[in-house]
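User: Modeling request: complex.
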Amino acid sequence: MIGESGVATRLKGTWFGEALSPHASDRLSAIGELRRVDAGAVLLREGAECDRFGILLDGLLSLRVAVAGRGRATLMTVEPGETFGWSAVVPPYRSTSTVVALQPSEVIVFDAEKLRALLREDEALAVTVYPRLLQVVSRRLVATRTQLLDLYARDREYEPW
Amino acid sequence: MVIAAGNVFLPRARLDALFDLLHEGGRTIIGPTVRDGMLVLDRLERVEDLPIGWRDEQAPGRYRLVRGATERAFDVVNGQMSWKQFTFPPKQKVGMMRRDEAGSVAFAAVPPDPPRLAFLGVRACELAALGIQDRVLAGGTFVDEDYRARRESALVVAVQCGRAGDACFCASMGTGPEVRGGHDLVMSELDAGFVVSAGSPAGERLLARLPGRVASPAEEAEASASVAAVRAAQGDPVVIEGLRDRLMDQLDSPRWEEVADRCLACANCTMVCPTCFCTSTAITSDLDGRVNVAERHWDSCFTAGFAKVAGGNFRPERSDRYRQWLTHKFATWVDQFGTYGCVGCARCITWCPVGIDVREELAAIAPPAAPPEQLLTRPAAATPGRFEVVTLRASQRETADTTSLFLQPTEPALLAGLPGQFVMVEQPGFPSLPISVSRYGTDELVLTVRAAGPATAALIAEAPGAQIGLRGPLGRAWPVDRALGRNVLIVTGGIGLAPLRPVLDAIVASRDRFGEVLLAYGARTPSDRLFTDELERWAQHGIEVAQIVDRAEPGWEGRVGVVTQLLDRRDFGRRPTVAFVCGPERMMQATVTTLRDRGVAPERLFVSMERHMQCGIGLCGHCQMGPYFVCRDGPVFSVGELGELFGKEGL
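Assistant: Request completed. Predicted assembly structure:
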C-alpha cells in the first residue's frame, strides 16, 4: 500500500480535492486509500450497502443498473477526476448503481463509516465536503435529464423534409 | 490647411531669403543635413547645409545616401532622427530634490525654457507624429509643460514629399503624403524653386515678406502632381480597415514567438519612432545625498526591465514585448488617444538591425479579412430557380436512418467549397433541402443525409445514376485557418459530425500544423454513430477520439452519458484552444457553457446554427436570427459574434 502522503498528493490533483483546506485535505487523506483495480472489477453493487466513496484517478468506470428482461444497462460512465459512491454519505447508504471498472483503473477510496464519522465530528470538514457532494449529485441529475431529452433523435415536426 | 490663394513661388536661388526670415529674432533653424554619410536633423546656418543633390535608398535593415540626378534640397526622405528630438529631447532634467542639514526636504520642477527653433523640412508623416505626441503629452488631463512650451515656441516649415521612401506607408496610415495641417508654412519643391503657402497666421506673416511672385497655375499643378505621384508610388501596403480588432483578436498568435526569434529587443524601433513617448526617470545624487537631480530619458517597452515590479516582470519574454509594442501602435493607441500610434514613416523598418518589417508582421499576424469574392469561389446556381444538375454515383448507408450520397458535378464551383458550407438540394416535387457537405473529393461531393421526412427519404432512396439539383456551396465556413498552431477541440453530436468531417480532413492533411486535437463525439446509441471506421483512422493520425452515447447497447464497453462529460475535467493546457461545435442547439449551449468555464474564449468558440433555410442565399427571409440570415452570414458563427443571441429562446 502507498503511504498517506501519496493519498494527499493524488487527492489534490483532482477536482474534488484541489481547493480543499489543508485541514480538510489532511483529515480526508488520513482515511483514504489508493487502489488499483483490474478491468471488470466491481467496486459497488446496486442495492447493496454503499460502503465506500471514491474518486477515479485513472481509467474508466461504468455505472450500471439491472433491468429485468434487458440485462444490465450502463447509464453513465465516470471519467478520471470524477467521483463514485455518493450514496456512502446519503441515507439510506445504499448504492444506486453497480460500479464496474471498464479499464484497469486507479482510485482513491474512503471507507463509508469512517467518512461519515469524520463528517459528524468535524463541522469545518463537513462544510467543505457536502457542497462538493451536492455538486456531484446535481451534475448527475443534469446529465440524466439531458440524456432523457434524447437530443439526437429525429424530430417528427420537421416534416415535409 | 493649404491657403490656395496667394501661394508664392520662391525661386531656388532665393531660398536664402527664407533662411533669413526664419533666423530673425535669434531663431535657430533645425533641418536635414548630411553628416558622416547620414542624414541628421541639426542646426542649419545656410542653404548649402541642406542635403542638396542627395537621395536615400531604404530597405528593411538598410539605409544609404546616394547622389541623386537633380539638385533638389528635399529629396532625402526621413533619416533615423525625428523632430521629437527637439520637442521631447532624449534627456531632459525635470526636477531637483534637496535635503538640508536639518533634514527638511524641498522639491523643485525644472521650469520650461524652450530654445527658439524653426523646423525646416517637416514631412506630412512628421506633422502627424507631432500631432499624435501633442495628444499624448499635452492633450489630456495632465500636461508635460516642457513639451508644450517647446511645441508652442517652434515654427514649423513643412515640405511636401517629392519622393516616397522605399518602405513608406503614410498613405495607408492616412497621415500623408499630402501635408494637411499643423504647419506654419509648407513648400513644394520643383526644379526651378518652391511653391510656398501658409498654414497659420504666423505663416501668413512670413509668406507676405518672402521675395518671389504669385505661383502660376502650372506651378501649382506641378506641385500637386508631384505629391500625387508619391501617393501612387506607395500604394496601400497596410490594410487599415478593422486593424484594431483584427490585431486584438490575435493576442495568442503563434507569430509573436516567431518574430521574437528574430527580434534583438534592441529598442531601435522605438528610439527612431516619432510617436513613441515612453520614458524613465533617473535620479543622480551628489556624494552626500543632499542634492538629487531627476532626469527623464527615452525608454522603450523593449527593454527587459520596462514592465518589471518588485517580485516579477509582467512582460518577461521578448514576444510579450513585441506584442506590447505592435498592439499599442496599431490597436490600443486608438482606444487611448483616438488615432493609431503609427504614421507610416518607415523608420522602424529601415533601422531594425534584423530587418523586421512591420508591414509584413501586421499582414501575417492580423491578415485583413479577404473580401467574400476572394475567399469563396462563387457558388453555382446562386439565383432563385436555378440549380446545377449532378449525378448520383453511389450511396452508402451510414446508420439505420442516415445515408451518404456521392455526387458527381460537372460544375467545378461545386467542388471548390470550404468545410462547413452547405448546398441546397432540389428534387422535382419536393421542397429544397439545405444539406452540409460532409466531404469534398477531387471529382465528387459527399452529402450525408438523415431521413427526417418525405423529401429526405426520397433523396436517400435515389438509385445510382439519378439526377438531382444543387446550389452552392453556400454560407460561411469553419475558420480552420484560425486553428493553425493551436489546440483544436471538435465537439459534436449526432449528424453534427457530417459538417465537421471536412475540418477533420483538413487537419489530417496537415496534421503537424495543428496542436493537440480532440474530437468529442456524442451519439444517441452506439449504432447511431457515423463514420465508425474513420473514427479509428483519425485516431491513427494523432487525433484523440472520445466517443460517448446517451444509451448503451449490449456489448458497448465505451462511454455513456453526455458529451460535456468528456470536457468537464479536462485540462486544455497553456496553448490556446479553438473549438468547433456542431449538434442540436441544446447540446451546443451545454458545450459552450462548459468550454467557457474551462477558459476557451468566445471569439475562438465556433458553432454552426441551424435554421429553416429555403433559398440559401439570403433572399427568402426564413432563416433570420437577430441581425443575421443564417444561410448567408452563417451557419458558422463565433459565440462572441452571436453574443446574447446564442441560446436565446424564440429567435
